[in-house]
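Support reply, case 0932

Customer input (verbatim):
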Amino acid sequence: MALLNNPFALTMTASLIIQIMVLFLLVYGYFLKRKLKFRQHGITMAATVVLHLSMVFYIMIPSFVLALIPDYIVPAPLAIVSVVGLIHGILGTITLSLGVWIVASWRFSKNIQGCINRKKTMLKTLTVWIATLVFGITLYAIFIGPVLMG
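Our regenerated output:
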């Protein structure tokens, strides 16, 4: 299988699988909140942000800086892969910044008032994160689709 013989494709596939796991953790955290298990919700969300951060620093930033910028964005800034990559990077930076801010401002406090005050920000962060995931899946399809077909 072409996917197993291509370390780039294998790394991108692993990253995508982990991001889908992050999505499931976000949904699980949401259900914890709905069950009024606020502390468990916060711990789940903090773990989710750490998992996401590790993938961003281990895979996404190096891919963006070492491959996407020099091979696509600089030579052809208006090409579809460049535009999708830039939007993905910008939305991802916003999402990550908001996620880290929300978790850091909570600091595992037992007082949930601060979380209630940030509810709208949490919903906006989730919305932007889903948009980021969609653009990431689009990049995956652009790069890995041909590998899987050939």
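We compared this against your earlier run and they match. Two observations from our side: The longest helix spans residues 38-73. The chain has one domain: 7-149. Please reopen the case if you see a mismatch on your end.
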